[in-house]
# Entry
Amino acid sequence: MSASILTVDDSASIRLTTRVALSNAGYQITEAVDGLDGIAKLKAGQFDLIVTDLNMPNMDGLTMIRELRKMPAHMGVPVIFLTTESDNDIKQEAKAAGATGWLTKPFDPESLVKIVRKVLGR
Amino acid sequence: MPASDVKEDCLRLPQNLTVRAITIVQQEMLQFLDKTASATIELDDDCQVDISFIQLLEAARIYADTAGKHIALARPASGSTLDVLKRSGFLEGMSAEDLKFWLHQGGIQ
Amino acid sequence: MSFPDPIAVFRTEAAELLEQIEAGLLDLNVNLGDKDQVDAVFRGLHTLKGSGAMFGFDALAAFTHHCETAFDRVRKGEVPATQELVTAVLEAKDHMRALVDTPNGDHEATGEALLANLRAAVDGANSPGAASPAKAAPGRSHFKIRFSLPQNAMANGTNPLPLLDELRELGECKIVANRSAIPSLELLAPTDLYISWEVELLTTQPRSAIDDVFIFVMDEMQLDVVTVEPPLAAGTPGKTETASTEAGPAAAPVAPPAPIAPAPVDAKQKKTAENVRVPAEKLDELMDRVGELVIAQSRLSQLAGGSGDLQLRAVSEDVERLSGELRDTMMVLRMVPVTQLFGRFRRLVHDLAHETGKTIELLTEGETTEVDKSVIERLADPLVHLVRNSCDHGLETPEERRAAGKPEAGHILLSARQQAGEVIITIKDDGRGINKERVRAKAESSGLIAPNANLTDQELYQLIFQPGFSTAQTVTNLSGRGVGMDVVKRTIDALRGTINVTSHVGKGSEISLAIPLTLAIIDGLLVRVGDGRYVIPLSAVEECLELPIEEDMRSRGRSFISLRDSLVPFLRLRDLFRTGTKPDPFQKVVVVSTGSERVGLVVDQIIGDHQTVIKGMSKLHHDVATFSGATILGDGDVALILDVGHLVAEGQQQEAHLRAAG
# Structure
């Protein structure tokens, strides 16, 4: 059974890039357009991994990660966040919120798949 | 020492034995160990296991030991459980006691 | 559906392999000790030989076999990598290309000569005393690693198992879990991690590879890595004489074959499994269809918009969303990294350095930046011009550089980065810079500018891209060998791009090309001017403002609006296009910009967003500078696409005129 991934991003083109890259790599993709939508999708289903942007309208990524970490049903689900900053502060903040790893934008599809594989394992 | 007069109870664990469900498994296990002197743990053939479950069983062994109870696996570790034992480096440097518990090796249960 | 011709597929693959091999060789040339590159070149040759034989390119397979054998020996440490060897294989590589292109041609003599070179290079390298840095290639290191992950690692999504797997992939690995910290069940926080690990690792990888495994948890974890003394120095039994320490690693030519990374064929297979090769023209065809779909869709949404049928509207919205998504997917598919494009220049620079006797180092940055494939194809030629120019004329000879107190090696930096909807490609050298006086003199003598014309530096530099500037006799250091830089300008214009030049005498020049990421479809703002409709590329639009009649009247003749404390010139498109119509009572100003320059365009009405499929203009209209293309609207009408760069320039000119007029 292929792993299922929730991608959360307000940018349609990033969502598309991630969808294309990850479904080509054999993952099942569900999309959410912002943190609020992400939480709704999380309440409705189970995922093996979440890829999320940080800057989003309605609910930003950091808040969503914090909310997610309070949901027992999703205990320990890995979260990869996308960031344009190579800035360490943001990484620290996101890690403190409960993120697992990160990927710096712009990214190529291969590195996204690589990171997902790294976190999910075989 | 397994004494024939001790009633052996069996706890059948759910399929999901990963960090996602581990908190519930801990509760079940604690309740179960509280009411029995000799506990057998039965794992589903195709259960999903991650390192949190291995850690949990190790903690359960310590608990049983301190409480003077007996705990054992119904069958030697196989499938996903054995795989995690290997990958996590538990198989390396197992004591006789460990081998007996996990793999039923070196003695009869 | 037809299957692609296997021979054609092989040719494509061979071309890629040859490029890889070349890139590897050029890297190796810079750092002869680079074991990764030796492996990469070997793998490339190995695969080329294998698939060549499979597709009946026997001559290629046989010839490649010799090069592969030579590199196999380098890889095994039997022969060091030398400049001579690299050059010999580089030349052999060109021959391989010929064998791919014309397998039945008469290549034997050339092949023999090249192989003789290769043999000489290998033998020369093998002779004692030819010890080279290549031999310093690291053997295996022995690491003792102890680590514990952050306590909340599992709760935060870090599964230790993949990390342990990754460590195992680095080499020979023994992993032991330490469970002494696990508490009794009632005290256990089950999602916390109490286990720590001790690992012994024998690997050819550097220490940093271990850090890479833990990259996401590095800051919060405990990690101790100890390097254990080198393992029994390649222990050749029976060889007990006290080897002098300095000959140490170099004197062990029969080192046991280092554990080679997974068989090359495997790696290749893995890669092909994840990719599907599609001929470029199929992609173009698909793009055309998508373009037509977008046009049909906008017709549908116009129909639906005008009808009261809610169901029709709903369907139309769905189709709009889907075709938008399809377009985006298409765009992603067409994007390719600039790596390959940049790769060509390494060879070019290598050859030019050879020809000119200069020492030139080419640095590249941002190679993973992705650009539409057709843009890449069209960028190749202008970039060759520019790089060649920098090498030929920008960079000084080693003697001149020494005299100027610069390092002997000249540097050329080729970089790519994305910025908004554009990719910026920069060619930067640390050469002598552009001599402004000479550019001016040349431009004056060829009648491009009036004597003593008042020009900014940028305007002056832009002159070198004028046709007729660089004629037969080479005048400035940037004019090329009669190869017109105007070709560069023309191509970049056609790509709707801009060129920016900066230069400092004695320090070097920098030429930046800003090119739209994609060519075929743009998001546009549809506007009405008089009776005609026009499209303004949305990426250039900064904002839209009202132009009240009073303001319009007041500004007659001035044509400036004040926009947050700065005066922005504006152009009345109605006047520019001579529509002969009355201004709409609610005119709008669309402020567009290219970089730092802005201009307002006065239109009668803003109709809205429009996905614009760009169609080229006919030859007849090719010289019309105001428009960059045309598009078909939903109702079948044609709208012209405004060339923002040109209009901004026009606006600036107008500003300059008015300023001059006081």
Summary: Residues 33 and 133 of chain C are 5 Å apart (CA to CA). Residues 280-306 of chain C form the longest helix (27 residues). Chain C touches chain A at residues 154-159, 161-162, 165-166, 191, 215-216, 219-220, 274, 324-325, 328-329, 331-333, 337, 368-370, 418 (CB under 8 Å). Chain C has five domains: 6-135, 141-229, 280-336, 341-516, 521-661.
